[in-house]
Amino acid sequence: MRLFIAILLSEEMKKALTDAQQAMVDRGIRGRYSPEENLHLTLAFIGDYPDAQPVLDALNMVSFRPFDLSLEGIGCFGDLWWAGLKDSLPLAAVARRVRRALAESEIPFDRKRFSPHITLIRRASKDAAGIRVAPVGMRVQRLSLMRSDRGRNGMLYTELGTVEAALQEEVQP
Ligand code: 2AM
Q: Which of 98, 105, 121, 150 is positioned for an S-S bond with 58, CB 3.0–4.6 A?
């Protein structure tokens, strides 16, 4: 199983992202656009792992309060273009806690520095600089363990489990 931990996005945020993708299409940019249902923000990429339960157990050790995310601009890694997020301390903190919980449970994950992004298109045929993304916000209430499978028409993502934001008094210092 190919696993990763992600934040799934609100319908309003996905709409802002598909509007940006449409603006890319209108500019004649071809490539592998992420389908709307696949748009997400990855916190940790685990990759091939045989069993979801230990990962869910690790995820359940992560406590966090609800926090807000906001879209901000676009950027690229080579020919992969993404939507960025406004700098957010709670987002960085929750990614750190997820990664610490995985490490403590001896679940391997990609240790590359957390660089929050939402992939819009891979193998873009040309530069997408200047495409605008509406600065839509959302409240994060849960984190999701996701499984990724290669489908006939691209990647299929399935949510295997979630951890919910804790009530204030339950949060550990
Ligand atoms: P990407 O969109 O930038 O490729 C599922 O593959 C999710 O995990 C995607 O959000 C992907 O980011 C992310 N991811 C992070 N590290 C990865 C890696 N080493 N291999 C594949 N996906 C990775």
A: 105
Number of domains the chain contains: 1
Contact, 71 vs 16, CB < 8 A? yes
Q: Is 166 exposed, middle or buried (0-12, 13-18, 19+ CB in 10 A)?
A: middle
Q: Is 119 in the pocket of ligand 1 (CB under 6 A)?
A: yes
State whether the beta carbon of 148 lies less than 6 angstroms from ligand 1: yes
Burial class (CB in 10 A: 0-12, 13-18, 19+), 56: middle
* 42 part of a folded domain: yes
Whether 121 is a known active-site residue: answer no
In a domain, 102, yes or no: yes
| Mean pLDDT to the nearest integer, 30-42 | 98
Domain interval for residue 120: 2-164
The verdict on residue 172 lying in a domain is: no
Bridge-partner residues for 68, per DSSP?
Answer: 139
Nearest CA to ligand 1 atom 8: 45
137-155: per-residue pLDDT in tens? 999 999 999 999 999 888 9
Q: Where residue 79 sits, what CATH number does that domain have?
A: 3.90.1140.10
pLDDT score for 87: 95
